[in-house]
Amino acid sequence: MRRNSVEQSRRAVADELVAVVAHDVRNYLAPIELRLHGLQRMAMRDPASQPMLAEIQRIFSALGQLRSLVADLLDVARLDHGLFRIQPGVVDLPALIVESARALARPEVKLDVRMQALGKILVFADAARIRQCIDNLIVNAIEQSPHGATVTVTI
Fold first, then answer.
1. What is the pLDDT of residues 22-34, one digit of tens each?
2. Contact between residue 76 and residue 18 where contact means Cβ atoms under 8 Å apart
């Protein structure tokens, strides 16, 4: 009983730590996004800043993914308390994959997305969870690829 009590206490402390860290990280993201919006407005005034605007969009996308990760950490706490929800809906899978590839593209590894099937591929799923899986697969492929290689994502 004593071991179970100690283990439950450790789990409770770990869950609380995850929730606190996730909450604090989320708080730090707000000023970063605010400053990024300011940079975006400045870049929009200068026609020569188009490449910078594209980079700013990539940063916004990465921040969105970081926000999703923080939300996932908070979901762990919700799951443990029976409050976790998935939000299924119709998802355009190719569009989601292309969006993920654009957000995760890096100069050192080319990403090539190819569509094998004709037409749309619609699935009924939680878009955020599917996006998380796709992101993980693409990031793993990029990290395992040599510099200058091409990662091909086939749908």
1. 777 777 777 788 8
2. yes
Q: How far is residue 116's CA from residue 90's CA, in Å, rounded to a whole number?
A: 20
pTM of the model: 0.54
C-alpha torsion 104→109→111→112, nearest 10:
180
CA 32, CA 54: separation in Å to the nearest integer?
17
Alpha-carbon span 96 to 8, nearest angstrom: 39
61-73 b/e (C-beta count within 10 Å ≥ 16 → b):
beeebeebebeeb
φ, ψ at 4 (rounded to 5°): -60, -40
- Do 97 and 134 form a contact (C-beta atoms < 8 A)? yes
What are the C-alpha distances in Å from 132 to residues 32, 69, 102, 114? Answer: 22, 8, 14, 20
Type of residue at 130: I
Residue-wise pLDDT for 59-98, tens only, equals 887 887 787 777 777 776 666 666 567 789 999 999 999 9
CA atoms within 13 Å, Cβ hemisphere of 86: 10
Highest mean pLDDT range out of 69-73, 97-101, 115-119, 145-149? Answer: 97-101
Residue with tokens 């989320």: 26
Whose tokens are 């100069």? That residue is 107
